[in-house]
Amino acid sequence: MIDGLERAVRMLDLFSSDTPEWTVADVCAALDLPKTTVWDGMQSMVDLGLLRRTGRGRYRLGWRSFQLGLRSRATSEISGPAWTEMRALVDTHHQTVQLATRYRGEVVYLEKIAPHTGVRVNATRPGERLPAHCTAVGKVLLARLSPSDLRDVCGEPKPRTPRSITTLAELETELSSVRQRGYALDVGEAVEGMCCVAAPISNRHGDVPWALSMSFPEHRRASHGDAYLRDVLEATRRLSEHAP
Questions:
Q1: How confident is the model at residue 241, as a pLDDT?
Q2: Which helix (H) or strand (E) holds 228?
Q3: Residue 94: pLDDT band with limits 50, 70, 90
Q4: How, if at all, do strands 51-55 and 210-217 pair?
């Protein structure tokens, strides 16, 4: 049962905004699974509404996947309060603000508000995932891990841009700095030409399940970076004080 569920999740994970359609053959190649296993699994997910057939042997996410995503967002204990703080940050600074959590060695973006004008960061749309080691939100969330857990989830970091961290030793040094100062920076490490500042949101148990960040063009760092950081820290402080 658990093996079948894990395979189903691995199949569902393949569907993204960049590759929304998959064939059985494509899934077999991507996951190195037998055709009969993939065929049976995808037919079962069609029956359950997790996938839908679009014709010519192609599949997309189905109505139940959509429903579960909306339900998760609507019942989140942090999305509502965070949205208020995020809206205020965007209205004040006219930069993009994101809420994220971590899954293993990746960050998952939960909410995002972008200004009406300016640079758009498509990589941080809600539901998208990025390697944690090259994002400010990811560094904030990784900073809580023990050295052994960090090795387990990150291994040897792979670069996303020429400025990304590429060794575990370098990542450990960076996370030590994050713990000391209470916030994280990403300077062109996830998206070239973009910077990001992030701070943790803790819950009443003292855990840090989420992080809030602001993304902005690198050329604005010298003139506006301190103000962005100050207000992100204030927003996360308020959210942490009232988080369940």
A1: 94
A2: helix 221-242
A3: very high
A4: unpaired
Residue 92, C-beta contacts closer than 8 angstroms, at least 6 positions apart: 231
Q: Which secondary structure element, helix H or strand E, spans residue 185, and what is its range?
A: strand 184-187
**Pairs from 28-37 (Cβ < 8 Å, separation ≥ 24):** 31/7, 33/7, 37/7
Distance between CA atoms of 155 and 126, rounded to whole angstroms? 26
Buried b (16+ CB within 10 A) or exposed e, 189-198: bbbeebbbbb
User: What is the phi-psi region of residue 123: left when phi exceeds 0, alpha when psi lies from -120 to 50, beta otherwise?
Assistant: alpha
Count of Cβ atoms closer than 10 Å to residue 123 Cβ: 16
Give the C-alpha distances (Å, rounded to integers) separating 36 from 32, 71, 146. Answer: 12, 32, 41
* CA dist., res. 22 & res. 20, Å (int): 7
- Confidence band of 18 (pLDDT split at 50, 70, 90): confident
Q: Give the predicted TM-score (pTM) of the model.
A: 0.89
Residue 9 token pair: 């999740």
> Nearest-CA neighbor of 140 among 100, 112, 168?
100
With tokens 């989140």, the residue in question is 76
CB 137 within 8 A of CB 211: yes
Least confident of 116-120, 145-149, 164-168: 116-120
Domains of the chain: 2-67 (1.10.10.10), 76-242 (3.30.450.40)
Q: Looking at residue 2, what is its pLDDT?
A: 63
Contact (Cβ atoms closer than 8 angstroms) between residue 130 and residue 160: yes
